[in-house]
Write a structure and sequence with these properties.
The complex is a heterodimer of chains A (497) and B (722). By secondary structure, chain A is α/β, with parallel strands linked by helices. Chain A has helices at residues 19-32, 63-66, 90-98, 119-122, 132-141, 151-158, 162-173, 180-190, 194-211, 226-237, 240-260, 269-282, 287-294, 297-306, 325-331, 334-349, 366-376, 379-382, 386-406, 410-418, 427-443, 449-461, 466-474, and strands at residues 7-14, 37-42, 51-58, 84-87, 108-112, 145-149, 314-321, 359-362. Chain A folds into three domains: 7-211, Pyruvate-ferredoxin oxidoreductase, PFOR, domain III (Pyruvate-ferredoxin Oxidoreductase, domain 3), CATH 3.40.920.10; 287-382, no CATH class; 424-483, no CATH class. Chain A has 23 helices and eight strands. In chain A, the strands form two sheets. In chain A, strands 2-3-1-4-5-6 form a six-stranded mixed sheet, with helices on both faces. Chain A has a two-stranded antiparallel ribbon with strand order 7-8. Chain A is elongated, with a radius of gyration of 30 Å. With 722 residues, chain B is of the alpha/beta class. Helices cover 39% and strands 17% of the residues of chain B. In chain B, the strands form eight sheets. In chain B, strands 3-2-4-5-7-6-14 form a seven-stranded mixed sheet, with helices on both faces. Classes of the chains: A alpha/beta (497), B alpha/beta (722). Chains A and B meet through helix 1, strand 2, helix 3, helix 4 and helix 5 of A and helix 10, strand 8, helix 12, helix 16 and helix 22 of B. Strand 7 of chain A pairs antiparallel with strand 28 (692-699) of chain B.
Chain lengths: 497, 722
Amino acid sequence: MSTLQPITILIAGLGGEGGGVLAEWLVELAIRCGHPAQATSIPGVAQRTGATTYYVEIHPQSLAALGGRIPVMSLAPVPGCIDLMVASELLEAVRAIQNGFVSRERTALLASSQRTLTTFEKLAPGDGRFDSERLLQVAGSNSRQLAAFDVGGTAREAGTVPSAVLCGAIAASGVLPFERSAFEDVIRASGRGVAASLRGFALGFERCGAALGAAPAPTLVTQLDLVALGHARVVEFQDAAYGELYRQRVERLKAAERLADPQGRHGGELTREAARFLALWMAFDDVVRVADLKSRAGRFARVRREAGAQAGEVMRIADHFKPGVTELAGLLPQPLAQRLLDWESRRRRDGKSPLAMPLKLRADSISGFFALRLLASLRWLRCRGQRYAEEQALIERWLAVVETAAANSWETAFELALCARLIKGYGATNERAKENFRYIMNCWTSTDAGTIRRAREAALADDSGSALDAAMTQAGASARAVKAIPVRWLKRTGHRT
Amino acid sequence: MEVSFSKEVEQLRQGAGETFHGEGILAITKALLQSGVAYVGGYQGAPVSHLLDVMVQAEDYMAELGVHVEACSNEASAAAMLGASIHYPLRGAVTWKSVVGTNVAADALSNLASPGVTGGALIIVGEDYGEGASVIQERTHAFAMKSSLLLLDPRPQLPNMVRMVEQGFALSEACNTPAILQLRVRACHVRGSFECADNRAPAMSRKALRDEPAAFDYEKLAHPPATFRQEKLKNEQRLPAARRFIVEQGLNEFFAGKRDDIGLIVQGGLHNTLVRALQQFAMGDHNLADAFGAAEFPLLVLNVTYPLVPQQIADFCRGKRAVLVVEEGQPEYIEHEILATLRRQDVNTAIHGKDLLQMTGEYTVEAIAQGLIKFLARHAADLPLAAAQDWLTANAARRHAVVEQLAAPLPPRPPQFCTGCPERPVFSALKLAQQNVGPVHVAADIGCHSFATFEPFGFGHTILGYGMSLASRAGVSPMLKRRALAVMGDGGFWHNGLLTGVESALFNGGDAVLLIMKNGYTAATGTQDIISTPDEEQKASAPDKRLSLVDRNQTIEHTLQGLGVKWLRTVPSYEVDTMRRTLEEAFTTETGGLKVIIAAGECQLERQRRVKPWLAGLLKAGKRVVKVKYGVDDDVCSGDHSCIRLSGCPTLTLKDSDDPLKVDPVATVIEGCVGCGLCGENAHAATLCPSFYRVEIVQNPGLGERALAALRRGVIGLFQKP
């Protein structure tokens, strides 16, 4: 790098993180040290958490050395010509790389290892998160040097904002020809929250130094005994007998897998994964279970911890419930439940909104707590109820489908087994999930493993079900019957329109 | 205001001998005072908001100087304000975001430009073009040409920007023509320094009042027959006078080069980018431009891009084999004018521009370098292009490689509603309402609420301009079986929605639903106050600073009633279920005509600015404080994320499930939750799932409260499972 080229720093962050302050500090730093500097930004709608970038240029020669000559500095970062890339969020670091700014020859990259998920990633009914491992790998392999550590966490630890931590990291990177003390003087002069900022600076300096060049730690995968976990879950949900039923079902899966894969080439993966989802399914979410979970000591402690309550502070918990006709019917025996559900569907057909009772239940109050315990004690009712019967029937259906498929192909049986992942949620969500599940089960015979996997992934990709419909019809399945929904046309009035 | 500019306000007081360090737009603001400006107005909007914000907050100092500052209701009223300079020797400046603001101001601008001005009139526009722009991509240049306004595009270095403000006023007076000074986004936010001069108190001002108004002078009216003479004057006197001044004062800069056979003409605002592009061309030990801008070829830097000076252009081009015009945006007005003027003067230098440079989009270093390669290959074949070519190729290769490596496209990260924003719940309600009454046509508008066009909502068929939503559905609603919905912020309502939308709909008996987001400020531009903003006393006297105060100011409601709106409902914006029901009623009621729903909820940014110090104070004083936060029981959450699809709150996100059986991530509420209540409201309104809870932490609780809590813990503990 010629002594006449400015040192270039690109900062990528999210609105409201103090990226502007950081850029201001760097310019201030350069000025105090007698170097020409310039900063610009594309703040976006900065307060509103969109992606924002700040760009700083500092001339390597001091004003004295320049003898009155004024360097012309660029207002915009130049791809491939960045000396230091700073990102307070991992995906934004990679975005800058994708935009071509970071170069393997020239750019040192300081990136936070943690993610702030985009809305887009959060929407999927399954897991729509971008693979962080891959992001880190791209960051490492496309920069001259990578220092990745949890900037946000470090900032919280120091009780300050990311900008202070990043400032420390920049000082540690050694890209700027200024002493650590010079950086700290700028922070001191800034006058607001100095102590906390300096704490953050110090931690950032230290952690960046440690992270420089060090490869990010690989995540280790531990093989758990899912069957044992599943059994425990099911027993806890109902009773030992129900646990026994779980074991029998797992045995059936084992037998099916043995049939499909005698040499055990797949190491029992079908049984393991199916056992996982079978347990979650058998321990389906209903008022009894929810009430049980919400009234536990461990839960109270967790809430207290997550809310950051200190000793001596009083905690109140208000739980949001909205038990409806379906939840009630679920606990009643089939004939009774059916009558209730028919009545409800008639109401809906007449355009009435579903009957449900919104509750804010104070779990920490004595009455609220005992209300929860009372609900939790309704296990005996659950196993006689309509929901229980319905779930068991569908589970049996699924098992049968997997068993039959196993006779022909392990892959198909495996993909069908994984379809149990679709079953989750409450009320409408649960109904939607089951519709998708049934749709796939109904058409599976005509399809191979790949089609089933694509269908399942489509079902987990969007909640409207249109992705699933597309995937299924593409695979030659017949389209689902259109669901009846009440439509209201507007009566035109005498008014001119 | 969301931000305090006390530091910047202090900088405005700097005088000769001091050095200003700061943002470009603040340097411009300081330059206005150094030029003896008498009145300042405008309408906020990125990237020039700070100019007006700082002026407003500098109230006391402005009073000292006698400068009048006005936060105008829209750009039209700002432009009309410049009418003061028609008769009086007053220097005035107004500011807004362009091109949109200039569109709104166009009528007044034409009627200002025609009679012309006595005192210097300067319009500071933020040219919102290219990266970071939030509006349609058009050029302000067209307005300068059609109304014969002067257009300055300063080389973006603070001393030059300041000089152009001072010279801009002088130029405006020298030719009795209003001047526009355009700043690109990055130029507004550039941090640099300049040597200050003393501020000049205007001769005629709020402190030095003039006894009598100006004498009647028909020639100063934009009214026939004067208008016919004014058109002649523009072209026979004013523009020639402008050209003389531009040359005499050297407003356009000429930088000599090492060789004279080719040259470059560039808009001032692009100078730095051009220099950086030239630096990518290495020839042996040096580049086509050095770090200080000394280039291989001569540069003509147009700090004034309208009018051009034909003689200056001809002199620069004469004797050169070829000249490249570096002009951002389309159409290429400058290039066309240069071509015409050279042809007339029979100068036969080859002129290139958009034929070699990209036609549209921001002129980045890469974009200009690509054009330069083509230009030099054709007219300076002796120059080595390898270095620049290799650099461009490497960039392209790098981008391609990364896309390959990523295998999947990176998710976008558009701006979104802030944590706790009062507008988010309204769109949750709209999503639910449409599930019951069917989809409706949504006419969207400018403002924070336009973030509802992004995930998880995706609402909005059209955006026709600020405050235009209701007007933009006038032709739609008569054609649809279901009522159309127009969404408008209180900012847009006062900017012009009241007249273009409400008045028109009432007069025409339009059967539509108008949803007004009453958050109390023009929030998207930085929460500037408007006429319906709750006043400071109300904020000071509010016992609980956390509560929304927008209900304290009923100006919007009274205005609507006064106009004759019959169907008017006000719903607190966080009450999702009530809002859903109200929307459904509005969409289906037999009542015709305009139906207005006011979603009342104060901007959360403003509330937090008030709440944080208040709570800190209470805690310091050992007073009782209740901290509210929402949470998700991850063992109850099933990982379906329907709650997120109904909210999109930044603090409602995902984490890996602690349950080894669950593979899908579960919802979680992270630090930063302001306890707005939306999670609970949605859980109820949509029957989501019972995993949400509201937790209240009582800090410094009373004795009785502590005792009761202890009793409860004791009793519950006896019967609690681990």
